[in-house]
From TrEMBL:
Organism: Halothiobacillus neapolitanus (strain ATCC 23641 / DSM 15147 / CIP 104769 / NCIMB 8539 / c2)
Pfam families to which the protein is assigned, alphabetical: Lip_A_acyltrans
Taxonomy, superkingdom: Bacteria
Classification via PANTHER family: LIPID A BIOSYNTHESIS LAUROYL ACYLTRANSFERASE (PTHR30606), LIPID A BIOSYNTHESIS MYRISTOYLTRANSFERASE (PTHR30606:SF4)
GO CC, alphabetical: plasma membrane
Example GO molecular function: acyltransferase activity
Keywords annotated in UniProt: Acyltransferase, Cell inner membrane, Cell membrane, Membrane, Transferase, Transmembrane, Transmembrane helix
Transmembrane intervals: 37-53
Protein's name in the database: Lipid A biosynthesis acyltransferase
Xref: InterPro entries: LipA_acyltrans
Length: 327
């Protein structure tokens, strides 16, 4: 990875100091054209084609891929089933199976939609997106804030949508070991002006964006092991949670807006579910973790299949709990 420094226009009152305006960008390498990457380029071509084909084609392709994926990767299907079972024990088995199937269809469509995000115009992408609370969204755009989110089907899309409307930052995590995939995803994420920083850089650059009245796209549902995590319930199950959202907001002098991207399979359009700001304790405590998980749970319950249930949400277990994912 290389870093490039760019000078922010001085008349902009929200611009960061020059030494802080860092965009992380992996340069294009001619080695990306080697045969080892030809399969990746083939799929990029498929994504480009799908970006301009009708929604019905993408939907039919997503349904086929979802069925195939469940057959080829039964382990991932069982993770989804286990998560839904422990989080929604009061739902019928038939309802959970329907949610499972819808989950895989939504996730498959979202992958196919990388083409639209990478190749279609900003005007087009905005037309394909609606916001649950436009007034609240305007408030966030003008004042900035921490966007507290989780892994929904519309995560990539809504992340792009935020950067089309406001300046903000997000943490960057390399996408596997494939250098071309890293380049493609990074280029896609900074396409609309996002400031993307490697996780190793910590919170300092994001705090500076927040203090400048901008945004920080914060994914709060990852299980990163014990480390700095504390346990707090999510759907009644103790989950390892990083309790930093309140501290980030306090240091950045910003509010916290829970948000989740949702995909409408009937139309192929996306919805930004945006909730009013929440108060989260600033100390890294169980209370802070509980407030974070309560906000995430509210977002997820709005439309359960939208959430990425294929994650091992509860892989880090308390000492008195068995591994939920042992077959």
């Amino acid at each position: 990875m290389t870093k490039r420094r760019t000078r922010a226009p001085s008349p902009d009152p929200t611009a960061l100091p020059r030494q802080d305006a860092i965009v992380w960008e992996q340069p294009f390498c001619w080695s990306f054209l080697c045969p080892r990457y030809w399969l990746v380029w083939f799929f990029v071509g498929i994504l480009w084609l799908l970006a301009y084909l009708p929604h019905g084609v993408r939907r039919a392709t997503a349904f086929a891929l979802a069925r195939l994926y469940q057959r080829v990767y039964p382990k991932r299907r069982r993770i989804v089933e286990r998560n839904l079972e422990v989080c929604f024990p009061d739902q019928s088995a038939a309802q959970r199976r329907a949610w499972r199937d819808a989950h895989f269809q939504l996730q498959a469509y979202a992958v196919l939609d990388l083409g639209r995000l990478w190749f279609r115009s900003v005007a087009y992408l905005k037309r394909q997106t609606r916001v649950s609370d436009p007034d609240l969204f305007e408030r966030l755009i003008h004042a900035g804030g921490v966007v507290l989110t989780g892994h929904g089907a519309g995560l990539e899309w809504i992340g792009h949508f935020f950067t089309m409307n406001m300046t903000g930052s997000a943490m960057y995590k390399p996408f596997g070991k494939n250098r071309l995939l890293n380049w493609l995803f990074e280029r896609g994420r900074v396409r609309h002006g996002a400031r993307v920083y490697p996780r190793e850089q910590g919170l300092k650059p994001h705090l500076r964006h927040l203090r400048a009245g901008q945004g920080f796209f914060y994914i709060a549902d990852e299980d990163l092991g014990l480390g700095d995590s504390v346990f707090a319930p999510l759907f009644g199950i103790e989950k390892a949670t990083i309790p930093l959202a309140g501290k980030i907001a306090a240091l950045g002098k910003a509010e916290i807006y829970p948000a989740l991207g949702q995909l409408d399979m009937a139309s192929g359009r996306y919805r930004l579910l945006l909730l009013p700001p929440v108060k989260i304790p600033t100390e890294g405590s169980t209370d802070a973790a509980e407030a974070i998980n309560q906000a995430l749970e509210r977002l997820i319950r709005d439309d359960p299949p939208q959430y990425m249930w294929s994650l091992k949400l509860f892989k880090t277990a308390t000492s008195d709990r068995a591994d939920l994912y042992v077959s």
